[in-house]
What we know:
The structure holds two protein chains of two kinds.
Chain A: H1 18-21, E1 30-31, E2 34-35, H2 68-76, H3 79-101, H4 106-122, H5 124-137, E3 141-145, H6 148-161, E4 166-169, H7 173-177, H8 180-186, E5 190-193, H9 196-203, H10 220-230, H11 240-257, E6 260-263, E7 267-269, E8 274-279, H12 283-289, E9 293-299, E10 303-304, H13 307-321, E11 329-333, E12 341-347, H14 351-355, H15 371-375, H16 377-382, H17 393-403, H18 420-424, H19 431-444, H20 450-463, H21 466-482, H22 485-488, H23 509-516
Parallel strand pairs in A: 3-12, 4-5, 4-6, 6-9, 7-10, 9-12
Antiparallel strand pairs in A: 1-2, 7-8, 8-11
Chain B: H1 3-14, H2 36-46, E1 50-51, H3 62-68, E2 74-76, E3 101-105, E4 108-110, E5 115-119, H4 120-123, H5 128-131, E6 134-139, E7 144-145, H6 148-151, H7 156-159, E8 162-166, E9 171-172, E10 180-181, E11 188-193, H8 197-201
Parallel strand pairs in B: 1-11, 2-3, 3-6, 4-7, 6-11
Antiparallel strand pairs in B: 4-5, 5-8, 9-10
Amino acid sequence: MSTVRDNADDEDGAMLHPQLRAEHDPDAIIRDGRRLDHAEGRSKALRPQPPEPQPRGARVHGNRPVDQAEAAARFIASPEHEKMHDERLWDLRQKRDREMHGIPEWEELRSLASAIKEHTLTHLDEYLDEFEANARSNGVHVHWARDGAEHNQIVHAILRDHGATSLIKSKSMLTEECGFRPYMTSVGIEVIETDLGERIQQLDNEDPSHVVVPAVHKLRTDVAEVFSRTIRTDPSNSDVHYLAEAQREATRPLILKADAGMTGCNFAVAETGTFVVCTNEGNADLSANVPKLHIASIGIEKIIPRLEHLAVFVRLLSRSALGSPVTQYTSHFRGPRQGGEMHVVLVDNGRSERLGMEEFWTSLKCIRCGACMNTCPVYRRSGGLSYGATYSGPIGLIIDPTFNARKYSNLPFASTLNGSCSNVCPVKINIHEQIYAWRRVLVERHEVPLAKKAAMKAAGALLSRPAAYRTAIAAADMALAHLPRFVIYNGLNAWGKHREVPHPPKQTFHSWYKANRGAKQ
Amino acid sequence: MSSRDDILASIRANLPRVDRPLPYVPAFDDEPPASLLDAFKASLHRMGGMFLDPPAAGDILAPVREKIAGAKIVCSMVPEIRGNRDIAGIGAPRDLADVDFAIVRASFAVAETGSVLLSDADLRVNAVAYLAQHLIVLLDPADIVVNLHHAYRRPEFRDRRYACFHTGPSATADIEGVLIHGAQGVRSLSVLPMAGRRSAEK
């Protein structure tokens, strides 16, 4: 029962519905600090609850380390969001499993994909050269950008040359990495995202939270709120079909009048100079085929040698990402269409440097399918925006520190190291091992907070001396059984913040073994 | 130094010193389905596409004619069906924004995925396949390959400037995973199996 007796606020001891006792009940008449109830009904009608507000992402302060755990705690404190997010992503993971079991050669494809990527990355200069030469001979303009700023300037210059002031684009994590939209806004160019999820995020002035499903952390009520503010939908209508249709109708005129189109790239084929874009909405094809001018941003690690290799990756990509055999659209751009113009910008932005990191260069194999995110228990429960970085989830933990080791120094700790990410990765990146390696590197570089470091150092010293470890364990078990809670759960024990310390056993394994089996040795 | 030279120099300085040979990619076609057309049809259905069963007798195009019967603007890129919007007279792609049905013949199809390949040669104006509200595709049953490994051996990827696998209609599940057809592109995609001229002449 939700009614209570003998409450201090309820002097006559009658049953009062908690909502009626609410301090700020707008229905109440308060006189001399007391609620008048001489004719007031104590009944309360059942009404729909207001939608749960969307938990926002990490609070980012310049270069200061992002506190992923703080943002994750706020996400978890929003049960409707957390539950939908967790279940939606786990569903994607299960659909991925179903697809995997439908293809007998699945594991062979993963091995091939990994081997092709590793071969290409170890010959990256040659394949980039080949891609460039072939793209040029197909009539494509090829540009090179060292970093995000140069990428943005190159694209801006192309647009300026064409007198273009509006740009429709499909989703591209690379352009997120480059801070492309804020830059374009600052120079007066209107950018319109055409992927539904990405458009929602753009209209809400929020980063994508997932590499494949950018608005997966939002409930339909959040989208209804965003759309009612921005494209004038009915704020009380959160029907998903209505919202999607309203967005289609609102975006179509912008697509038709745009001066230029932009896409990302999933794979770039060296032998033909072709770049390939995979979408479900057909929005990349609209962006590329409606305006005369098409610009594609391509990370240099997207290169693969030949068309025959493309088959391996296309078979793996959508099965790993969404659990569908293929995306609705797999578009191959080899050259400009009649009367059109095509530019590609090959972007480094830290990739060539990452290639030289012995423990981490294989993270460049990533094809951005998001499978590691969908399977990660930390990601599913904390939402992608809690990472405060372009890339979230397990792949983010190993890529983000290469951009800024200090700012993203907490991220490699947002993992249970269960290894599921590595198991589902279609290109076999040893993600969990790299997460672990990053922890070591960050400690060595003094990027880890003192309390965490001191605890790890003490643990390290203890674990390296078996006798000391045994004594400590016995003492800890004894202490845990008898110490009051405030001694065990305090600020110094970060581990105990959200967890209960396990019940101490009556006996350590070692002492049990000695007593029961020791004599047989 | 140019950015190009900078980037290539940085790559060369950082190349991992490990030997990684390029693997051989098999065609994975040991156990092809008994009927490529049936396999294609099943895959297409899974991806939200519609397979138009041709009538046992009479006009093979009857299912297409039925679909477009109430449509205002039909843009046909195939000689088998006459539309009322001439693709040859299109000045800019945006002039196709009011098309209700576009009809095109696919270069070929893939049984594994239920995809049809539409290229610039098939579409004439690429945008028609995305701006139209609905897309109808004629497919020669002789032009179905078993899987993507076979697909990428086809000449279209070497001699066309634009080629796109369409697998069902435009779709999204970006809001709470709810499936929507017609996110930005076509609301429906239907495929009618029908021999093309080349095949018929054989």
